[in-house]
Design a protein that fits this description.
Rossmann fold, 6 strands, 4-stranded parallel beta sheet, two-stranded antiparallel sheet, binds zinc ion, alpha/beta
Amino acid sequence: MSFSLLDILFPRTCACCETPLNSHEQEICLHCLSDLPTTNYHFQQDNAVGQRFDGKIPYEHATAYLSFQKGSRYREAIHLMKYHHRPHIGTILGRYAAAELQQVYADATLLLPIPLHPARLRRRGYNQSLYIARGMSQIMQIPIDERSVIRTVKNETQTARHGYERYLNTRDIFRVIHPESLSGQHILIVDDVVTTGSTIESCAHAILQAATDVRISIFALAAT
Ligand SMILES: [Zn+2]
């Protein structure tokens, strides 16, 4: 292992296991990267992520790269990525995901990270899904569209909502402002963590209504 003077002055630690990183490592140590809890959902067309969208929106492929239990050190890394100013964790994991999944999404033409509401983007300072998409784009050589869809509703309280109320709540939280950039594309929607899938569903719904001749695929870095 080699350490630079900067590492000694400002020790960087692995987002998963907190061991010091050497100068060749970024955000996550090689040991943790070699042990990622991948779902392998991309080997199954009918998988636990796709099932969340069956009958709701038409999609080509849907998968999540990682799956973990409560208390997993990988869950901690996702938390740091989202809430503690370490969005580059997303870029690194996005690269790893794309290297494994690019066959599945080979004919996608556009990466569309789920937009944050402008107020939340200002507060957080970054959109973690955009950082994930950047990592994927580096491997897949597909452009990112971060301007055609905007989020108009903050949707903060979603976890407390159920059933029809949640459906109404998530139905119109996105608006497509540049449908012409999306028409004719196979759009790969990129999200950080998929839970019920209602946010992605709402985004896909807005796209399908506004643009013509569009195909949708779905990627989440992790699934709960
Ligand atoms: Zn580690």
